[in-house]
Amino acid sequence: MADDNTNRFVAGLRPKSKIWIEIDGEVVFGGGRMALFEAIDRYGSIRQAALNLGMSYRAAWGKIKATEQRLGFELVEKHAGGSQSGAVLTPEAREMLVLYHKFKEDSVKAVDNLFVSYFNKFMNT
Questions:
Q1: How many domains does the chain have?
Q2: Does 113 fall in a domain?
Q3: pLDDT in tens, 87-110
Q4: 4-35: pLDDT as tens digits
Q5: Is 35:53 a contact under the CB 8 Å cutoff?
Q6: 89 is in which domain, residue-wise?
Q7: Cα dist. 109→12, 71, 104, 112 in Å?
């Protein structure tokens, strides 16, 4: 007869979580904002970034402005016309990206460790 505990083990049991930063219940930075700012950095254009993320320019611009207002500093410098046309991230935006990546990475590790401490007996190791 098989051990009754064998049915409690679940192959591939893993936690999933999303992490974002808010001020007064309003999103400041998260996965979507990170993708937007990285795309702006990659393409040098808000319009191209928005297009590649499947969003309208207006939606992208709204997220940028809302984030800047909530943080109290500029994240994107827009340049209209001429050879300098496009958008570039400010040093603060670049720092936010680096810090958010690290924060997210550390958060995932913390959640994974907590998960193991709580659910280890149900994990198929």
A1: 1
A2: no
A3: 999 999 999 999 999 999 999 999
A4: 444 455 777 889 999 999 999 999 999 999 99
A5: yes
A6: 25-103
A7: 17, 27, 9, 5
